[in-house]
Design goal:
This protein is an alpha+beta fold. The protein has five helices and 20 strands. Strands 12, 13, 14, 15, 16, 17, 18 and 19 form an eight-stranded antiparallel sheet that branches. The longest helix is centred in the last third of the chain and has 22 residues. The protein starts with a strand and ends with a helix. It binds FE2/S2 (inorganic) cluster and fe (ii) ion (FE2). The site of FE2/S2 (inorganic) cluster has 8 residues, from loops. The site of fe (ii) ion has 5 residues, from loops.
């Protein structure tokens, strides 16, 4: 196994990756690429999720060019038709009663599953568990999906950036960073298998709380930040406002599309908006502006990789989370043997 983590590192084939939003998968074929392999996804007649490699066994045409009818997919090139188990059921050029070649079967990924409104694929036997998001199943939270961003970069670097706590006053000066303290508080890292959680509380100036202007609460308030990440690239930051009340969670789910491309699926979960769609739209637009600030740095990396030898980079006590992230990636590589 190579000593740098890239989008195409072989160990990633043994992990779960988000490849589409559940709402994107309909009864017509959808193409989605993960680690350089294209998949075709559709819903069978019973709504069941179907996923195969996007390659017809006949002449390798992309099946996603085809059409579905009654849960069956017909290839656009010569009309071979496949049922939702991937078995070829018709070859028009042979006539109706012809015997079909036994190998006329589509290739499945090892596993496909849905969780919190996302579709996940594990190309090979996964070492990690299927990620979930507790807020997604909680009716008190409103959901705001960001548009899917498709950008140059390395999924490991984007995940590293999401977990990084020391860049806010610099990268995010134009959005929320100007008022953030540069000093990173001390915190503990709790790890269970390939899932990690970091929680700490600190004081901050709550400039968005109307209670401050009304004199109900002081400007300086407490908040609890909880970072959760499931290896390799499934992350969330939960912010609990301990004085003003309310919880904001940012989900950040990364798909390593190919050697140089990442798709960023990000969703906001808020329990403090009273169902107000306009405020959710404002929150989504703000989050897009925050991500654009990160993209300026992340898309500019020349080498799209993270060294797994931790002596290659310098780490300080403020980098404990991102150092742990590197250890988790190394442990994954070790677990794969
Ligand atoms: S390539 Fe698909 S039917 Fe020929
Ligand atoms: Fe950032």
């Amino acid at each position: 196994m190579s000593s740098v983590m890239t989008n195409m590192h072989p160990v990633l084939r043994r992990c779960w990756h988000p490849i589409a939003r559940s709402t994107e998968v309909t009864q017509q074929p959808l193409r989605s690429v993960l680690m350089g392999v294209a998949y075709v996804l559709w819903r069978g007649s019973d709504g069941v999720l179907v996923a195969f490699e996007d390659r017809c066994p006949h002449r390798r045409a992309p099946l996603s060019l085809g059409t579905c009818d009654g849960g069956q997919l017909q290839c656009a090139y010569h009309g071979w038709t496949f049922d939702q188990t991937g078995q070829c059921v018709t070859i028009p050029a042979l006539g109706l009663d012809a015997a079909l070649p036994p190998k006329a079967h589509l290739t499945s990924p090892h596993r496909v599953a849905e969780s919190h409104g996302m579709v996940f694929i594990a190309p090979e036997e996964p070492l990690t568990t299927l990620p979930s998001v507790e807020e997604a199943g909680d009716a008190s939270f409103m959901l705001g999906d960001l548009p899917v961003l498709r950008v140059r970069g390395c999924a490991a670097l984007y995940a590293d950036n999401f977990l990084d706590m020391a860049h806010f006053p610099f990268v995010h000066r134009g959005t929320f960073g100007a008022h953030e303290a540069a000093e990173v508080p001390r915190y503990d890292v709790v790890r269970e298998g390939f899932s990690t959680r970091v929680t700490f509380e600190h004081e901050f100036a709550n400039r968005e709380d109307p209670g401050v202007e009304q004199g109900i609460r002081p400007l300086i308030q407490r908040r609890r930040l909880t970072y959760r990440w499931d290896a390799p690239f499934h992350l969330a930051l939960r912010i609990d406002f301990l004085d003003a009340g309310g919880t904001n969670t940012i989900g950040f789910y990364l798909c390593p599309e190919d050697a140089e491309t990442v798709r960023i699926y990000s969703s906001l979960y808020r329990d403090d908006l009273d169902g107000d769609e306009l405020r959710m739209k404002e929150a989504v637009d703000f989050e897009i502006a925050v991500i654009e600030e990160d993209l300026r740095v992340q898309t500019a990396y020349e080498r799209l990789e993270i060294p797994l030898d931790i002596t290659t980079e310098l780490h300080t006590r403020a980098d404990r989370t991102t150092l742990e992230f590197r250890r988790v990636l190394m442990d994954l590589v070790k677990a794969a043997g």
